[in-house]
Design a protein that fits this description.
The complex is a heterodimer.
Chain A (H helix, E strand, L loop, with lengths): L3 E4 L2 E4 L5 E7 L6 E7 L5 E8 L5 E2 L8 E7 L2 E6 L8 E8 L10 E3 L3 E5 L1
Parallel strand pairs in A: 2-11
Antiparallel strand pairs in A: 1-3, 3-8, 4-5, 4-9, 5-6, 7-8, 9-10, 9-11
Chain B lengths: L3 E4 L2 E5 L4 E7 L6 E6 L5 E7 L5 E4 L2 E6 L4 E6 L8 E7 L8 E6 L1
Parallel strand pairs in B: 2-10
Antiparallel strand pairs in B: 1-3, 3-8, 4-5, 4-9, 6-7, 7-8, 9-10
The chains are: A mainly beta, B mainly beta.
Chain lengths: ~120, ~110
């Protein structure tokens, strides 16, 4: 099946710095990617929908200036956590749909996630 | 926005026993995903249901979609330790339910 690669898998940063997380679709083009945040023992919370070539659509309550999303190409979306604080520490995960021929855009593929720790 | 409610929140089952997880949507279901996750890891796609009445099976896992009831169920037959994890249902726009944590006791 299609593969979504997320990098880095773990990152530790100091308060006040910014961290960029990359999400790549390796063998298909993803016009739309999704970014989630997950707290311990909780489900995935959809943060935003990333659209190639246009602005991301953020869910209610998610700060646009805090979580910058860029979808510069059909295979890459990035999430930048700006001026990170300890409360931003979490597990972030991305997903993408394969709209290629034969796939129908039905199955969504997930990256392996990024564990962010802000100290 | 669509809200998905899963039940139970968690369950413990003896190895070899069956279990069922339910997912109820606040809106019409145009499609529903089932995923499995171990916390801190990525999601494993189980199956997607698109049509009312649709039922899919993979190995010992069966999922059904009841469009009228805006509900889907995931059934595991003869559970094994490998079935332990968090099961998530997701709507077509990939918003997720709270998840069901499954523990399989030997």
């Amino acid at each position: 099946g299609a593969v979504v690669s997320q990098h880095p898998s773990r990152v530790i940063c100091k308060s006040g710095t910014s961290v960029k997380i990359e999400c790549r679709s390796l063998d298909f083009q993803a016009t739309t990617m999704f970014w989630y945040r997950q707290f311990p023992k909780q489900s995935l919370m959809l943060m935003a929908t990333s659209n190639e070539g246009s602005k991301a659509t953020y869910e209610q309550g998610v700060e646009k200036d805090k979580f910058l999303i860029n979808h510069a190409s059909l295979t890459l979306s990035t999430l930048t956590v700006t001026s990170a604080h300890p409360e931003d520490s979490s597990f972030y995960i991305c997903s993408a749909r394969d709209w290629g021929v034969g796939s129908g855009g039905t199955e969504a593929f997930f990256g392996q996630g990024t564990r962010l720790t802000v100290v | 926005s669509q809200e998905l409610e899963q039940s139970p929140q968690s369950l413990i089952v003896q190895e070899g026993k069956n279990l069922t997880i339910n997912c109820t949507s606040s809106k019409t279901l145009y499609g529903l995903y089932w995923y499995k996750q171990k916390y801190g890891e990525g999601l494993i796609f189980l199956m997607m249901l698109q049509k009312g009445g649709e039922e899919k099976s993979h190995e010992k896992i069966t999922a059904k979609l009841d469009e009228k009831k805006q509900q889907s169920s995931l059934h595991i037959t003869a559970s094994q330790p490998s079935h332990a994890g968090i099961y998530l249902c997701g709507g077509y726009k990939l918003s997720f339910g709270a998840g069901t944590t499954v523990t399989v006791r030997a």
